[in-house]
Amino acid sequence: MHKIIEDLNWRYAAKKFDSTKSVSEKDLDIIKESLRLVPSSYGLQPLKFIIIQSKNILRQLVPASYGQAQVGEASHLIVLCAAKKMGDSQIDEHIQNTADTQNSSIDKLLGYGNYMKTIIAAMSNEEVFTWNTKQAYIALGQLMHTCANLRIDSTPMEGFDPKAYSEILSIDDNQFSPVLVCPIGYRDKDDTTQFLKKVRKPNATIFEHK
Ligand SMILES: Cc1cc2nc3c(=O)[nH]c(=O)nc-3n(C[C@H](O)[C@H](O)[C@H](O)COP(=O)(O)O)c2cc1C
Known about the structure:
By secondary structure, the chain is of the alpha+beta class. Helix content is 47%, strand content 12%. It has 9 helices and 4 strands; from the N terminus they run ααβααβαααβαβα.
C-alpha cells in the first residue's frame, strides 16, 4: 500500500487521548511549518493558529467544546482562527513580503495589489470572513495529514463555542474568530473508535470520469 494511503488509513478522529504523552518540540516544529506552508487564496494567509499546551487552559476549554473530553486530554490543542476582515493594509503587507521574498521590484506588483484591493473592497466583512473560514478548512486537512505522517493523532472539530473560546483565550473578536479546533496527541489504548472500520462511500458514487 502506498505510504499516503497507509497514513490516511492510520488516522481517525480520536475520541480519547493518552494524557500522559506529549508531542515533542521537534514534531511540533514540523506541524507549525506545515501550517505555515498551507496555500491560501492569493496567498494572503488570513489565518492565525493558537497552540495551547497549558493543561489549565485545556481543561477550561472542555465545557466550551460541549464537554468533548479529548480537548482536555490532548497534548496540544490547535485553534484555527480566521481573520474577520481584510483591507488595503493586508494587501500592501503581502505585496511587500512577495517583493522581499522573491527579490522583485514592488512596482511590478502594484497592479496585482490594486486588483486584489478592488476584489476585496467589493466584499462585505461577512463575505470576507466566510472566505477566510474556507482557507482554515484547507489548513485543517493539511494538519491532519501531516500529523498522520508523524503518527500523531488528531481530531478535527467544529463542535465548540467560538464566543466562549474567544473569551477564554482573549482573542480580539474584531480581528480573528476561532472557526475550527484540532486536539493533537496520542490515542488512548481504551479509545474504541480506533478499532472501527472506516465508513466511506464506494468510488462509484463519489467519482465521475469523463
Ligand atoms: C470539519 C469537521 C468537523 C468535525 N467535528 C467533530 C467534532 O466536533 N467532534 C468529533 O468528535 N468529531 C468531529 N469530526 C470528526 C468526524 O466525525 C470524522 O472525521 C468522520 O466521522 C470520519 O471519520 P474518521 O475521521 O475517523 O475517518 C469532524 C470532522 C470534520 C472534518
